[in-house]
Write a structure and sequence with these properties.
alpha+beta, Trna Endonuclease, Chain: A, domain 1, Yope Regulator, Chain: A, seven-stranded mixed sheet, five-stranded antiparallel sheet, tRNA_endonuc-like_dom_sf, nucleic acid binding, DUF4268
Length: about 375
């Protein structure tokens, strides 16, 4: 740190000293400075975090322990902030100590937090805790205030020097979305004057917003992955039950088929590239004939030949079918759907019964026409190569 000598247009280096050299103590001095002016901490943090309300110091309200945390605060989101102060060296156990305090504080309810703050105010000049909290958070009444929600308590470590084991642990905690921070506090001497410099070093203010965004992104990805895993598990369970019913109803095509995590389950029709397919979606189940050979020309030919028999096929099936030639795609579909809540297990028996019944009807209606068309395909009729 330097002082500007405006008269000589020069910089004068300030002497960086230790707290012990100056005779300053942790509780008597550093703790009192920060309790009286929490803005000193906020100025070292990233933009948008300019607010801490100290609600207690030397807090010892932990059942069954004699431990005391240095400072307890609220941030602008109503979350508790555990502040651990050290002087010239962080020590080895400060992280473990602070995490214990954060764990203890995580169960504090709104009424307890207001009471803790009221005790602090009563010992330090008085005031109304509830009103002060409302003013700090910008709320009109305490009823509208949410305090200490979830597990988002923050931990702030303050020291002139942080040991490697401390910084490594804090970085690891941040990777696991625990808001732990290190703020370096250094005393400087210039003549008879003493200056204190506080700088957030983990994370650096410039990197804090980026790290928050990355943590949010990772959380979203984990959530999406977890949701996907759950959907896969549900589908596997559904398809196993559906296969059991299909086999019980006499479907030989499904004897050697296993459940899948996909939304669809298909079996062969006897025509290459064509399958009888069951589909499970969130809002419906579907039974369909899928025509998806390697040749678009053959797919369209097969579809057109079946469509020419639409009246007879639907009569044999016993219901109106949906016909999708899909001119902009290779695949063609002929299907029927039933609305439902696909992930409601209470509806599964009816859904599976509907699938089994309609699949058997689809096979009965289309098996013979497909077999005849397959002979014409082999003869090259679809591509005009037959003789």
């Amino acid at each position: 740190m330097f002082q500007v000598d405006r008269f000589q247009n020069r910089l004068r280096k300030l002497e960086c000293v230790s707290f012990s050299e100056l005779g300053y103590r942790e509780r008597e001095h550093l703790q009192e400075w920060l309790a009286a002016m929490p803005e000193a901490l906020c100025g070292s943090m990233s933009e948008g975090e300019d607010g801490l309300l100290i609600i207690q110091k030397e807090f010892d309200g932990f059942d069954g322990t004699r431990e005391r945390l240095d400072l307890l605060a609220l941030d602008k989101q109503g979350q508790l902030v555990v502040i651990e102060n050290k002087l010239d060296d962080s020590g080895r156990d400060v992280v473990w100590q602070a995490l214990k305090y954060a764990a203890y504080c995580s169960s504090l309810k709104k009424v307890e937090i207001v009471g803790i703050f009221q005790q602090y105010l009563d010992r330090n000049g008085g005031g109304d805790a509830a009103r002060t909290i409302c003013e700090f958070l910008g709320e009109d009444t305490l009823d509208e205030v949410v305090l200490n929600d979830g597990i988002s308590q923050r931990v702030v470590f303050i020291a002139a020097n942080f040991r490697r084991e401390v910084t490594a642990t804090v970085l690891w905690l941040r990777e696991h979305q625990i808001d732990a921070r290190c703020i370096k506090v250094l005393p400087y001497r210039f003549g008879d004057e003493i200056f204190i410099d506080l700088q957030q070093v983990i994370p650096t203010p410039e990197a804090a917003d980026y790290m928050v965004r990355m943590a949010q992104k990772e959380s979203e990805e984990k959530s999406a992955s977890s949701a996907q895993s759950l959907r896969h598990t549900i589908r596997m369970d559904f398809w196993q039950r559906a296969l059991d019913r299909l086999r019980a109803d006499g479907s030989s095509r499904h004897h050697n088929v296993g459940p899948t995590k996909e939304t669809w389950l298909g079996v062969g029709t006897g025509v290459s590239g064509c399958s009888y397919t069951l589909v499970l979606l969130k809002t419906l189940v579907r039974v369909e004939l899928t025509i998806q050979r390697g040749s678009t020309q053959e797919n369209k030919w097969l579809f057109d030949q079946l469509h020419a028999q639409r009246e007879e096929l639907e009569q044999a099936f016993g219901a109106t079918l949906e016909w999708h030639r899909n001119d902009d795609q290779k695949r063609c579909l002929i299907n029927i759907s039933e609305p439902c809540d696909g992930f409601d297990k209470g509806q599964w028996p009816d859904m599976i019964a509907w699938m089994s019944s309609h699949m058997r009807r689809l096979e009965a209606a289309f098996s013979a026409p497909l077999a005849k068309l397959n002979q014409r395909l082999k003869a090259g009729e679809a591509t005009g190569s037959g003789r």
